[in-house]
Amino acid sequence: VQGDRQTVLAAVRLDGRALAHAEPAFRGDREVVLAAVQNFGCALAFAHEPLRADYAVVRAAVEQDGMALFHAASDLCAHRGVVLAAVSQCGGALMRAAPALRDDREVVLTAVSQDGGALEHASARLCSD
C-alpha cells in the first residue's frame, strides 16, 4: 500500500493485512498499526519492533486474535493482562505465555475453557491437579 497516510489508514481499517504491503514508515506509525491490528490482530507481525512492545497495540491485537501474542515482544508475553486477553480469545496462545503464566491457575483455566487442547501448554504442576 503506497500513498499518503490517510489512504494507508483507510486500507488497513478495511483489511489489516494491508499493513504487510505498506511503506516501512507506516509500519512504524502507531495509529496505522493500531488500526491494522484492530482489524486483523496478526498484522502485528508486520509492525516495527517498538510497536510489538507497545502495550496498547499488543493488547488490541490479542483481543482481536489471541494468536497475535506470537508476534509480541517477550516482555508482554509475561504480562498477565495481555496473556489473559490472548487466551480468552484463543486458548492456544498459552503456548507463547511466559512460564510463570503457564503456571497461573486463572490463565490456564481461561485458556482451557476456550480450547481444551491448551492444557498441553500448562505447567506440570497444574496438569497434575
Automatic annotation (TrEMBL):
This is DUF4116 domain-containing protein. Residues 29-76, 80-126 form the DUF4116 domain. InterPro entries: DUF4116 (IPR025197). It comes from Zooxanthella nutricula. The lineage of its organism: Eukaryota, Sar, Alveolata, Dinophyceae, Peridiniales.
